[in-house]
Amino acid sequence: MFFLWLLFFFSFALAEFHSKMIITWGQPANYNSYDNINTDNFWTDCLKQCLEEVDCVRTNTEFCPIGDDAPLFGEDNVIEPYYSINVTISQDGISFWQFNIKCGDDSWLAIRGNQSVCISLRPFPSPYCMNYEAARNMCSVNNGIGLTNSYSDIEELDIRIRWNNSLQEVAINDPNALFSKTKDLWADGICSSGGKNCNVTDDTLQSDFNVINDYAINNRCVFIAPSAPGKRSAECSGTSAYRDTSCLRGAVCRTFPIQ
Ligand SMILES: *[C@@H]1O[C@H](CO)[C@@H](O)[C@H](O)[C@H]1NC(C)=O
Ligand SMILES: *[C@@H]1O[C@H](CO)[C@@H](O)[C@H](O)[C@H]1NC(C)=O
Ligand SMILES: *[C@@H]1O[C@H](CO)[C@@H](O)[C@H](O)[C@H]1NC(C)=O
Ligand SMILES: *[C@@H]1O[C@H](CO)[C@@H](O)[C@H](O)[C@H]1NC(C)=O
């Protein structure tokens, strides 16, 4: 016997700033997780509960059977305009779902533990080298959430490689934008003296890290250098980490997913 049951799945990744529903087909094989919504108004109460629980998508999907005639179940990867879903099935037949947000053209999707974020590397417009406040402002417009930083060493390497590539693209349209100075990237983080106990604003990152090099005399903000790994700090009001030879040329921004 097969009957349709509408499941509303919520992305825990999106729940941080807004909610998104995915409607799909399927019948829960086991209703244990719905015990507390056993009322006449099942559907409304189910929705209400789903709206309240950020992990709704994960608690329910494990109980859904895989049916051939359902448009979603039985497929490993579902790619839609605003999201994609990757499904892996373990040996004992339990399916694990990975809900992925979709990022805008200038951003890419990065997975940070159980969270997904969109990252965009933005170069400053002319006169090119700017301070931390300019970085913060640039990251808060055009679909930006704010500054972010690297979550892991792998993500940092990715950022450094992508930044080098995007500077080459910038140079195609604006040859003056490339010059001999090092082109560093402001990143989320304000530190105490010596580049210690840096705190971030993006809550998908870890606060309280120390930088490997602190070039600031007064207040300290974090940057990433494309030439070498590790986070460094510089004067927040400065436009270069070392006078004359470097330029704080852009920022690591987090952007909203497509919605
Ligand atoms: C989802 O699956 C597709 C196809 O196998 C793969 O290219 C993509 O990287 C996967 N996405 C994630 C976030 O794992
Ligand atoms: C996500 O991971 C963090 C850290 O590992 C954990 O504290 C948190 O409860 C997890 N959130 C969800 C919704 O699973
Ligand atoms: C970062 O946060 C910690 C814990 O709240 C605090 O002790 C430290 O002083 C903060 N660092 C800065 C630079 O504000
Ligand atoms: C980025 O470019 C700089 C300058 O050309 C180079 O020194 C650096 O190794 C490059 N970084 C990466 C991660 O490729």
TrEMBL record:
Keyword terms of this UniProt record: Signal
InterPro entries: PAN-3_domain (IPR006583)
Signal peptide bounds: 1-15
Ranges of residues in domain PAN-3: 4-104
PANTHER family xrefs: C-TYPE LECTIN-RELATED (PTHR47629), PAN-3 DOMAIN-CONTAINING PROTEIN (PTHR47629:SF8)
Name the record gives this protein: PAN-3 domain-containing protein
Origin species: Caenorhabditis remanei (Caenorhabditis vulgaris)
Biological classification of the source: Eukaryota, Metazoa, Ecdysozoa, Nematoda, Chromadorea
